[in-house]
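User: Sequence for Halobacterial output domain-containing protein below. Tokens please.
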Amino acid sequence: MEAISTDAGNNTDLIHQFSFNEDETDSIVVTVSKAVSQVTDTPIEEMPPLQETVDCDALEVLFTSFSIEDDPGVGQVQFPFYDCTIRIDTTGTVQVYDDGQRFSPDDSGC
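Assistant: Structure tokens for Halobacterial output domain-containing protein:
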């Protein structure tokens, strides 16, 4: 995987953070699957398909169509997958959290 993994440091609920760049790496869907595989130490073949959790085509369209130059705001999406919570934002950050940690857009929790 071309995505860069970094430890969360201070946030104990964040397991790993990955950087995604659509010009240099796999698709966002493949990046999420590989990230969760790495974090959970589970081969991708043994995990359920990501499509069972989220509409992968819509996820791809969302993150390939968003332009920081046209709209400097940050969009994000969050969903559970394989005992983790995945949070992806339009800056290319893919975060993998412990499944018990869920966030609202203002980080105050659900």
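Strands lie at 4-7, 14-19, 76-81, 84-89, 93-98.
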